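Dear colleague,

Thank you for sharing your sequence with our group. We've completed the structure prediction you requested, and as agreed, I am returning the results in plain text so they can be pasted directly into your records. Please verify that the sequence below matches your submission; if there's any discrepancy, let me know and we will rerun it promptly.
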Amino acid sequence: MTDQQNTAASEEETAPQFSLQRIYVRDLSFEAPKSPAIFRQQWEPSVGLDLNTRQKALENDFHEVVLTLSVTVKNGEEVAFIAEVQQAGIFLIKNLDAPSMSHTLGAFCPNILFPYAREALDSLVTRGSFPALMLAPVNFDALYAQELQRMQAAGETPTVQ
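Please find the predicted structure tokens below.
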């Protein structure tokens, strides 16, 4: 019986573990350089979105992942507004091999953070008195796969910090 308990405890210690500890806004900014004149113009927006992720290893198998969404909206040639949110999360991730850890930090965690970042960005834009900005879902798995292909073509190896 003791051998079975020891084996079960040993398997628990080496089994992959993932748990979300905290989600928070790390940074938030909004600028409407042409206000109030922009509100009196015909509204024909063009939206530019930049998306970025980064991760940092913390102590004791904790990792911080930060998803940054930067949106620049132009009305014609004029910048109507620039909004940026850095949505972050702290995740406990244990006992994953390097490829699985890289995928978890590069795709799985950003997938969790994106709805929070999208909502924060939309709220920020509507508080600036602009129409709601509902971003379409993002396929982080596809973006991660593209980045891996780019790195392989460049002879780089993915690293987990």
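Summary note from our side: The chain has one domain: 16-153.

Kind regards,
the structure core
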